[in-house]
Amino acid sequence: MKKQNIKMKAMEPILVDIDLVYANDYNPNIVAKPELDLLKLSIIQNGFCFPVVVIKDNKGKYCIVDGFHRYTVMKDMLGQTELPVVVLDHDIGDRITATVQFNRARGTHQIIDMSKLVIKLIKSGMPDIDIINKLGMDTDELLRLKQMTGLKEAFKNQQFSNSWEEFEHKYMEGGE
User: What is the domain partition of the chain in residue ranges?
Assistant: First the structure.
């Protein structure tokens, strides 16, 4: 397959008044509350790394093409008054297809790979509570991911009761 020489344009973000930005009426993407909370944490810890993609309408306002959830976190959860945006010059058809392209191109996290990441975090010394909080998980999800790979490694720093030892002593070695 021959490589194409495509002339690409790097888009420059600008800061706009967040009250001039509004959601489109066609985006099929939704985010659950735990992922929205994780997005908030990501913005707080890592900064606002991905500007919201918009078009400027004929009233001077900005309609979101991609980034509604980043906008929601910035406006409703963090109370920001400005928003970094990249402005596209798209008609409605190109806006809709761009929204779907942005959403679908992000992909999904594979369970086995997430399990391997959890094991790496455990090996790095990160406590379970930090893994849960920083990755937006609950304890059951962390437990399931630990069980996927490396059980011995995943649970090596856990404290367990002595009930098994007592049971073995009591019933297996002729105790009461």
Answer: 14-105, 111-172
| Nearest residue to 50 via CA among 68, 23, 32 | 68
- Residue 100 clears pLDDT 60, i.e. is over it: yes
Cα–Cα distance measured from residue 94 to residue 88, given in angstroms and rounded to the nearest whole number: 10
The more confidently predicted of residues 93 and 165 is 93
Residue 84 phi/psi, 5-degree rounding, is: -75, 125
Residue matched to tokens 């910035």: 74
Q: Model confidence over 35-87: pLDDT tens digits?
A: 999 999 999 999 999 999 999 999 999 999 999 999 999 999 999 999 999 99
For residue 14, the cross-strand partners are 85
Instruction: Give me the percent of the chain exceeding a pLDDT of 90.
Output: 39
Residue type, 26: Y
Cα distance between residue 28 and residue 81, in whole Å = 26
pLDDT at 88: 95
Query: Quick one: fold of 14-105?
Result: 3.90.1530
This prediction has a pTM of 0.69
What gap in Å lies between CA 103 and CA 101, rounded to an integer? 5
**Closest to 115 measured CA to CA, from 135, 95, 90:** 135
Tokens standing for residue 144? 């399931």
